[in-house]
Amino acid sequence: MFNGERLYQQLMNNYALFDGKPRSGLVCFETFPHGIVCAMAGRVIQAKPKATVRRVALKNRGYDVRRLPNIDFVDAALCAVAADEFLNGRYQLYGDRVEGFIVVPASSFA
């Protein structure tokens, strides 16, 4: 979490914080691996065992997870999926402008 905060501090100099409004240009946004997995599954799913659940979610999307050595790499891959969906306009938001938004891939689950 502390590394994420340091990264955010560096990014905010060059990227606008996503405020929930569609915009052109580069933005920084927050996402959450378990939320991504639930969105991808279209339902709330058990978090445990998270390494297995998250690898299966990526496999179900057609990703080869064999070269992801630990949960940190798996979570990074999930966040990359969320970023790709965001870039393609296929996302949903949780939160508000005051507290901020969490971005996850779009799904039938809301």
Task: Write structural notes for this entry.
- With 110 residues, this protein is α+β, with helices and mostly antiparallel strands.
- The protein has one domain (2-105).
- 43% of the residues lie in helices and 15% in strands.
- The protein is built from 4 helices and 4 strands; from the N terminus they run αββαααββ.
- The strands form 2 sheets. The chain has a two-stranded parallel sheet with strand order 1-2. Strands 3-4 form a two-stranded antiparallel sheet.
- A hairpin with a 3-residue loop joins strand 3 (91-96) and strand 4.
- Helix 2 (33-41) packs across helix 3 (50-60) and helix 3 (50-60) runs parallel beside helix 4.
- The chain is globular.
- The model has no long low-confidence stretch (mean pLDDT 90).
Overall geometry comes to globular
Beta strand %: 5-15%
Structural class: alpha+beta
> Domains counted in the coordinates: how many?
1
The total beta strand count reads: 4
**Sheet with most strands: strand arrangement:** 1-2
What radius of gyration results from the CA coordinates? 14 Å
Which stretches of 5+ consecutive residues score pLDDT under 50? none
Search tags:
alpha+beta
